[in-house]
Design a protein that fits this description.
Number of strands: 14
Strand content: 5-15%
Structural class: alpha/beta
CATH topology of the largest domain: Rossmann fold
Number of helices: 34
Oligomer: single chain
Strand order of the largest sheet: 10-9-8-11-12-14-13
Radius of gyration: 33 Å
Length: about 725
């Protein structure tokens, strides 16, 4: 359409009188401030914009971080027709008109259409559904902008067909840059005026704008335009003027929006993390935003059960009492019981062991109908006919009011739901519980020996494995220390991409998940570990969950070509290390690394097997002279050949060096103590165990019986097993 003189003058007038925030909008990617995690050189979104290959996008983040500005930059860089729709103002009719125009352009001129929808979350379900077919068949390329979480507020089908990019609140460095640009730009800013913005005023504006560029520039504009110039025509903006211009800290809070859920989430996580200062801050933020105190108390009651639980059973009582006090006195004085409950929860011992109920519920759902064991049944009705209740041991008739006996159904023998922590009230009872569980297991094993047909060998093995898993929980502290050692020395950055190799549990990924942004961690796991990790991930926020792939070379090859890792790490147990073809895997992994990528691996190798441990623990000369211990000597040699993989380790290091990794290494020895009982022996020698297979390569099946009897002489003895940990810390310099 041809513009006349009046139209042109009108547009110029609007442009000249536009707010400072609008005049200073970046025109190019180089002018764009912040969001380096998605727009830095080499990042996917930047490359897509420059190449004019932008697909369906959903840009989400708080106000004033550049979503609309980024859309305008895309518009200026594309050869496609760029249409803009505001979801708050447009209806179905407007949307259909845009679609019809897009079809017409495509048919007549072969020109694509990019449809930018601001505040896309404001489209109702019918509007989003009407848009979906045209996005799906490529008639329009959708770019949506929203301040809300698209997973909750946008049609799932639209989300699944779009790339999501999260824009973050601007940091202080970016905000200071914006202020200086506004003061120095002679065409769009105040570069033609003499403005003296004192450092305290600048810092205050940056501090209270909450990462919102629009709030920052609006405050600066108000300060400049409302301040009388000095005699030399200069304008001085001091701290007082800055405070008047921005009023007070703008609380970004909408009880129905993301900020509401983000703030209560920060509050609960601060309680969980035992940070009373942070908890008080988020409490104050909620109260300033007008949050209903009863909602806060409800969430604290949940936290008292979920995050504190039996570490401090009084926590839920304290919160309930404070809530009752608040109901009696109300605000403003009610702030005292609110703060009291907050500080108590943040300062007390923590435990989430009550989540054991969910394991029990799942077991009920997964299991067939479970019969009550006969000795636990009601004796008042069918005792005479069916023997109900016979065999029940009344705990109060025994010492300490406890006696080992079966309480779970037969098919759930030794199933463990509750794992108490070492903290507070429940920590005081942890050792007693483990002792009682051990006694219960021993009593059940005795029953099995008396009547071996009651339970099949397979079920026995499963039960024993469950017991071993329970015992393994005592190793948690040791493994946590090893995890900290693994990631020690890594220079973390929020934009890092991390590949964690062969994690046996989520433990080995906790550090990277804390240090890098959401979606920055990928776990390469073995097939047998995969289901366990999936279950652990259910406890994480969906946005925080890492991506799981199997550890096969083909899966690593299939990762996006543009995906590069800044950190590679993992603890590789000897069993995995001895069976992995690293010569094939590591060239592929290295190709996926950035220059100066960091590598941290811990290879754990046992120094001895069961035979050597027995030799070191048994006083052979003083034992039964009729027992033949000659089997041990030959078996120790075979264990040594089985376990000694130093050549393989050296070969692996040489390969890494050839690939361009600059490696430093350290070794240390760890002594692990293990009490031998029947479950341990069963684990060594059960069908399918690797140790049993090693034995049968050199010995006949008949050898297993005397070997098992020999091992039984160790029952009740704590043996020592030495592990050699080799840590490889490297940087990719090729």
């Amino acid at each position: 359409m041809t513009k006349d003189l009046f139209t042109f003058n009108g547009e110029q007038l609007i442009k000249n009188n536009a707010p400072l925030a609008d005049r200073l909008r970046p025109q190019t990617l180089d002018e764009f401030v912040g969001q380096d995690h998605i727009l830095a050189q080499g990042r996917l979104l930047r490359r897509s914009i420059v190449a004019d290959k932008v697909g369906n996008l959903l840009l989400h983040g708080p106000p004033g971080v550049g979503k609309t500005t980024l859309a305008r930059i895309i518009a200026s860089n594309t050869l496609s027709h760029f249409s803009v729709v505001n979801a708050a103002l447009a209806g179905i009719k407007d949307l259909r008109s845009e679609i019809e125009s897009a079809i017409d352009r495509l048919n007549k001129y072969g020109k694509r259409t990019i449809l930018f929808i601001d505040e896309v979350h404001r489209f109702n379900t019918a509007q989003q559904d009407a848009l979906l077919p045209w996005v799906e068949n490529g008639t329009v390329t959708l770019i949506g902008a929203t301040t809300e979480n698209p997973y909750f507020e946008v049609n799932k089908a639209l989300v699944s067909r779009s790339r999501l990019f999260r824009l973050k609140s601007l940091n202080s460095k970016a905000l200071h840059q914006l202020l200086q640009r506004a003061l120095n730009d002679k065409e769009r800013g105040y570069g033609l005026k003499k403005i003296n913005l004192v450092s305290e005023a600048e810092d205050h504006l940056v501090d209270v704008c909450n990462g919102d560029a629009r709030v920052l520039l609006n405050a600066l504009e108000l300060a400049v335009e409302s301040t009388v110039a000095n005699q030399d025509s200069s304008i001085s903006i001091d701290l007082q003027i800055a405070e008047d211009s921005i009023q007070k800290r703008a609380v970004l809070y909408d009880k129905k929006g993301d900020a509401h859920f983000d703030t209560i989430s920060a509050f609960i996580k601060s309680l969980r993390g035992s940070d009373p200062d942070a908890a008080l801050f988020w409490l104050a933020r909620m109260l300033e935003a007008g949050e209903n105190p009863r909602f806060i108390f409800r969430r604290m009651l949940i936290a008292a059960g979920e995050d504190i639980g039996l570490a401090d059973p009084n926590a839920i009582v304290i919160v309930e009492s404070c809530a009752a006090a608040f109901d009696r006195i109300g605000l403003p004085e009610g702030i005292y019981p609110l703060a009291q409950a907050t500080l108590y929860l943040a300062s007390t011992e923590k435990s989430n062991s009550v989540k054991a109920i969910f394991k029990a519920v799942q077991k009920v759902k997964d299991s067939q109908k479970q019969n009550v064991p006969p000795h636990l049944k009601d004796t008042n009705r069918d005792k005479e006919a069916f023997g109900d209740g016979i065999g029940y041991r009344y705990p109060h008739s025994f010492s300490k009011n406890w006696v080992p006996q079966q309480y779970l159904p037969d098919s759930l023998l030794n199933e463990t739901f509750w794992e108490p922590t070492e903290h507070g009230w429940e920590g005081q009872r942890r050792s007693l519980l483990n002792e009682r569980r051990s006694e219960q297991l021993a009593s059940i094993v005795e029953l099995e020996q008396q009547n071996p047909l009651t339970i099949t060998s397979k079920e026995v093995s499963d039960d024993l494995e469950k017991w071993l898993s329970r015992q393994a929980l005592q190793e948690g502290k040791r493994l946590e220390n090893l995890m900290n050692q693994l990631w020690k020395g890594i220079n973390w950055k929020k934009n890092h991409r991390v590949l964690v190799l062969t994690p046996s549990s989520l433990l080995w990924s906790l550090k990277p998940l804390r240090e890098v942004s959401e979606g920055g961690v990928i776990l390469a796991v073995s097939d047998d570990i995969h289901p366990r990790l999936l279950a652990e991930l259910e406890f994480l926020d969906p946005l925080e969950r890492p991506l799981l792939i199997d550890s096969k070379v083909e899966s690593i090859k299939k990762l996006q070509d543009n995906l590069k890792f800044e950190v590679i790490g993992g603890r590789i147990p000897w069993k995995i290390f001895s069976k992995t073809n690293f010569s094939e895997m590591w060239p592929i992994i290295t190709e996926k690394c950035t220059l100066n990528a960091e590598l941290s691996l811990i290879i754990s190798t046992p120094c001895s097997g069961p035979a050597l441990s027995i030799k070191e623990s048994l006083n052979v000369s003083s034992n039964n002279e009729k027992t033949d211990f000659s089997l041990l000597g030959d078996l120790i040699l075979k264990e040594d050949r089985w376990l000694n993989k130093q050549d393989q380790k050296d070969k692996f290091i040489r390969q890494l060096e050839k690939l361009g990794w600059n490696i430093s290494s350290e070794e240390w020895t760890e002594v692990v103590h293990q009490k031998v009982d029947r479950s341990v022996i069963e684990r060594w020698l059960h069908e399918g165990s690797e140790y049993r297979q090693i034995i049968l390569k050199s010995y006949k099946e008949e050898t297993l019986a005397p070997l098992k009897e020999l091992f039984k002489k160790l029952e009740g003895v704590t043996i020592k097993q030495k592990l050699i940990h080799t840590k490889l810390l490297a940087k990719f310099n090729n």
